[in-house]
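User: I'm designing a mutation panel for IPT/TIG domain-containing protein and want to avoid disrupting the core. Could you give me a predicted structure to guide residue selection? Please restate the sequence first so the numbering is unambiguous.

Assistant: Good idea. Sequence first, for numbering, then the predicted structure tokens:
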Amino acid sequence: KHRVVAQDAWGSWAEVNFKVIPSVTIEPESGAISDEVTVNGTGFGNQSRVTIYFNANSVATSKTDRHGSLEVSFEVPVTEAGTYDVEVKDREDNKDKAEFTIAAGANLTPTTGNVGTTLTVSGVGFKAGGTVTIKYDDADVATANANPSGAFSLTFKAPASIGGSHTVTITDGDNMISHLFTMESTPPPTPAPLLPEASSKTETEVYLDWEDVDDPSGVTYTLQITSDDDFTSIVLEKE
């Protein structure tokens, strides 16, 4: 509290008590786990020790200047998505609070690979103890339970799929995050024909053979033999 006195030239005077109310602002007001949040406060005690609380848990301490102002930063702790109080309190029990909203976050590594590549998905800010489902395009490929802090991590193998981009979706029913995974589509080397030999004459029963080639992508191919250049008359087809 402060005493405000007014006096005129004839000696008349009056006084009132004025109370400074603490005020707190934060920047930003929303973000992800591990983001840095800056707290600015005014109206606290003169050079008083203050504690910053996030969801009632201490995350930082500081000291005000002689005007009762402060600026301090902290990292958003690991917890599930939602809106939480950020409270600043000094030793004289002056206090104020603001709200911070946490959004769920998730990572996918690697983001390119072949059929069978091991993919790792990790996330924070999901429902504590909730079931997190991973979809590859429209198919469920893995599930995990978030821990009490809303974090999880799991691995799965990239399923057989066409080359190009595929959507990996991470959801717990309330939160949903999507990433793109690119399936490698480089074809293997062209196999050289071994049988029948070039320019050779064949008997009625024909044997066909090619040299082996490797394709780590897991892609499969279809062999077609036709009697015309337009492949309209297929005489043999093998996967």
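For picking mutation sites, this is relevant: The chain is about 0% helix and 50% strand. The CA atoms of residues 120 and 155 lie 4 Å apart.
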